[in-house]
């Protein structure tokens, strides 16, 4: 498991998919399983976090992402691989937004 900063430059589709998720709580599907997802963003958009929990199981996905002044992006997964985080964000499909 990686706990250090990961540079995700070249993963524009990851950032596009993350930016498409609404802030707050929503529900959706990843690999045929339902998840509840909470997305938080700083006012300036430089600090982002996501926490997802499988609704009928035990899987979780959690990370913090930082957009650095240099134009680079730093991804910090929480106790899981960078690949798991990127695959989840790319593959997650919203079912509809729930109120925060």
Provide a compact summary of the structure.
This protein is α+β, with helices and mostly antiparallel strands.
How does the SSE layout of this entry go?
Layout: E1 6-7, H1 12-20, E2 24-30, E3 33-41, E4 47-54, E5 60-67, E6 73-77, H2 82-91, E7 93-97
Antiparallel strand pairs: 1-6, 2-3, 2-7, 3-4, 4-5, 5-6
Helix pairs in contact: 1-2
Notable traits:
100 residues; alpha+beta; seven-stranded antiparallel sheet; 19% helix; 44% strand
Low-confidence stretches: 1-5
From the helix content, strand content and strand pairing, which structural class follows?
alpha+beta
What amount of the residues lies in strands?
35-45%
Secondary-structure element pattern, one letter each: EHEEEEEHE
What does this structure look like?
The chain is an alpha+beta fold and 100 residues long. The chain has 2 helices and 7 strands, in the order βαβββββαβ. The chain has one domain (6-93). β4 (47-54) and β5 (60-67) form a beta hairpin.
